[in-house]
Amino acid sequence: MINKTKPFLLSSIAVAIGSYYIGLNANAEPLVAKQPQPNQTILKEKLEAYIKFTKILNLIEHEYVDETNTTALVDKALKGLMSNLDAHSSYMDKKEYKDLNVHTKGEFGGLGISVGMKDGALTVIAPIQDTPAYKAGIKAGDVIIKIDNKATMGMNIDEAVSIMRGKPGSSILLTIVRKKEQKPREIKISRAIIKVQSVFAKIIDGDLLYIQVTSFDQNVVKEVKKALAKNPKAKGIVLDLRNNPGGLLDQAVGLTDLFVDKGVIVSQKGRTKAENITFSAKADKDDVKTPMVALVDGGSASASEIVSGALQDLKRAVVVGEKTFGKGSVQAVIPIGKEEGLRLTVARYYLPSGRSIQAKGVDPDVVVHLGSITNEAGSNGLIKESELDKHLKISDSNNTPKVIQNGLVGKGSSISESDINKDSQLKSAIDILKALIITEGRK
């Protein structure tokens, strides 16, 4: 998403209508006698469309069974107009515009889920880690069919988000349909002020740095830099972008730029030249040599797809996991006055290789589905030393138990082997990373 200020377009519309009227009045006979020029035809079509809209608005105001408010009608019309352009464009009223600005700063009220429209259904793109929705068990791909007792069929995203947000501590009941489950399930969630910690850093096996980025708010690059500075001797890096719904473009570009020193990171192409922008890496004190693996899944969307796709195209990281969500469009936030705005799709993203991720996603280099590793030591039928009676034990004062939280990392500074075995994707990423380290060491 790009925050951008653009002039409101009503002035140009007024000029276009005025020009048409002048041409029609000043040259009435020639216009009848001659075939209209293409620009005149377009102006006429525009004028007819504006007149039609005004007629319908007037009819509703005067004939609808209940008294209506013109401002409310126009707002509803704008919401309908924007939602019919594409799944990510929308008109934001005062509350929604304010909420968006708060959200990008990393703190907002609600449940902690990113949603989108898929085949006309309100679908969870990803829950944000450690939020009420995440803790309640909401998963990427869940289809929300009811919010409390209100069906979501025909509801747009902005309306759904508005209903799900509310007073902290208040409860909401989501009815969801989950893939491979025959019956819908109801999940009760208590709203809370969502304070997102977007970056988590842990140590694996003493010398591997695990960095998890849960969303791309304005703090991501700064926090990842801290993690890298704190662990300068890490032999390998696992960048976990799973269930990351995206966020700010500059943070995605900045994060990628920490690991590459040259080449295009991402480009965007739109209808106007102003939207044709290329973002390239800057030669700086980047970590361009430490072996790296990026973890992705179906909940990895937008900014996280830019990062993983760029690292893949630039041969900087091996991408492991499952195919990503496939959201490759650029939304500009255009203020309308001081308190309202448009979220408008203005371009498409293209990765360094020139490929688009829109509706395609990023295919991992190594496909690994989420699950547990069952083939642990001692489970293959062979006897191990540790299974012998009175086997010699190792004294290790540093062998303290470590925890995993919600299937990923907990509050400790490292992740244990048993916890890694609960996450097949992470286990595979670590194995691949170790192989890269060995390969690099032999060069």
**Percentage of residues in strands:** 15-25%
Q: In terms of structural class, how would the helical and strand content be classed?
A: alpha/beta
CATH architecture of the largest domain: Alpha-Beta Complex
Q: Sheet with the most strands?
A: 7 strands, mixed
- Which fold does the CATH topology of the largest domain refer to? 2-enoyl-CoA Hydratase, Chain A, domain 1
User: How many β-strand runs?
Assistant: 23
In whole angstroms, the N-to-C terminal distance is 41 Å
CATH superfamily of the largest domain: 2-enoyl-CoA Hydratase, Chain A, domain 1
Question: What strand order characterises the main sheet?
Answer: 20-17-16-13-12-11-23
Kindly report the oligomeric state of this protein. single chain
The best one-word shape is globular
Give helix % range.
Answer: 25-40%
Overall domain count: 3
Low-confidence stretches: 2-35, 376-381, 394-407
Indicate the CATH class of the largest domain: Alpha Beta
Give the radius of gyration: 27 Å
Average pLDDT metric: 83
| Number of helices in the DSSP assignment | 12
Write the layout of secondary structure elements.
Layout: E1 2-3, H1 10-26, H2 28-33, H3 38-63, H4 70-83, E2 90-92, H5 94-103, E3 107-110, E4 113-118, E5 121-127, H6 132-136, E6 143-147, E7 150-151, H7 157-164, E8 171-177, E9 185-190, E10 192-195, E11 199-204, E12 208-213, H8 220-230, E13 236-240, H9 249-257, E14 264-270, E15 277-280, E16 292-296, H10 303-313, E17 318-321, E18 329-336, E19 340-350, E20 366-367, E21 404-405, E22 408-409, E23 414-415, H11 417-420, H12 424-441
